Amino acid sequence: MASRTKYTDSESRQRVGQAIRRPAPSGEERSEPRAAVGVRVAWPTAVSTKVGAKARQVEWNERAGPAANARRKLPLLTADFFARVRAALAARPSPEQLHGVRLAAKRMRYTLELFRPCYGPGLEARIESLRNMQQVLGEINDCAATRRLVERTMPVSPQRTRMERFLVSRLHKKTGELRHLWTEGLDAPGQELHWARYLARNARTPRVTRHPETGGTKTPMAADKRR
Questions:
Q1: Count of CB atoms within 10 A of residue 40's CB?
Q2: Is 9 in contact with 47 (CB distance < 8 Å)?
Q3: Which of 20, 34, 116, 160 is the Cys-Cys partner for 200 at CB 3.0 to 4.6 Å?
Q4: Phi, psi at residue 193, to the nearest 5°?
Q5: pTM of whole model > 0.90?
Q6: Least confident stretch, 82-86, 90-94, 133-137, 154-158
């Protein structure tokens, strides 16, 4: 099995910075539409190891096009996400505390989805891995919520005892699934660097075509064969 190398948050961000220092394709930024991405995405601008830390606002550069924003911002947001979740899971959080990890995964997924037209199937695979993580986190949250409901509403009885044992067992199972998804999937050795390189080097200006009937424009995605 591949050995796992541990990096501090500072070292991780330095490696990501080294991975993305590659010039954009010649002339691409000049050809991108002005203000193509004019959105704000809630996200911490600095690494936070506090599970419930409040997300801050990140300003996207409205003068640059979507591909330029993707190349510059997404690798750094990815580094923050990996550091945040890594620190949270290392602290052995309770199911209630894992809610912060669930929110972080949701923000990361939604942010990547904004840039779907700039990438190809490689981005879809990463979005799917985040979706799977969200699914397991949601099941953990459901178990914890049901357990609290049982404690509040069911009188002490053999039936309640069986229910509580089932929920505790399911919580342990789903928590194990989450750790497996993280350590053997998203955070497997080298994965963070692969994410950073992919996001920094494969963003391309979306192709815009005019609809023959309405005269409007659209960005083709289904037939996109980019990486």
A1: 9
A2: yes
A3: 20
A4: -65, -40
A5: no
A6: 90-94
